[in-house]
Design goal:
The protein is built from five helices and two strands. It has about 120 residues and is mostly helical. The radius of gyration is 20 Å and the shape is flat.
């Protein structure tokens, strides 16, 4: 598919796709005329990349873990420097803190929503 089609499917801009390509996160094929030719499966990769970026992971970490996301049971680490391990540990802790905060927010919103529904039901 062409870059515009992938951009529409993945709900990102073509510019963002080019940036992901520059960063080595996605690799389209090239047609004989030099145009990018994106496979359908790249849309899933773009969704994963967006999710990881939204979670706050830096591109250098996404680049390392993206290849193993499709097959987490067959993780193979080529080389992991002490710096990379430390960075991953810090990111994991940050994500766990964020999940805890999000969980508390979800529970508070759920309770508020239930109270609002109960109030609306008694007013009817």
């Amino acid at each position: 598919m062409k870059i515009g089609e992938l951009a529409k499917t993945a709900k990102v801009s073509a510019r963002m796709l080019r940036y992901y390509e520059e960063q080595g996160l996605i690799t389209p094929d090239r047609a004989a005329n030099g145009y990018r030719d994106y496979s359908d499966c790249l849309a899933d990769d773009v969704w994963q990349i967006r999710g990881l970026l939204d979670a706050g992971l830096p591109i250098k970490i996404i680049k390392q873990i993206l290849p193993v996301l499709d097959h987490p049971c067959t993780i193979q680490v080529r080389t992991a420097s002490p710096e990379m391990i430390t960075a991953l540990e810090e990111e994991l802790e940050r994500i766990e803190d964020r999940l805890s905060c999000l969980s508390k927010s979800r529970d508070a919103i759920s309770e508020y929503l239930q109270a609002a529904r109960d109030t609306a039901a008694t007013e009817e």
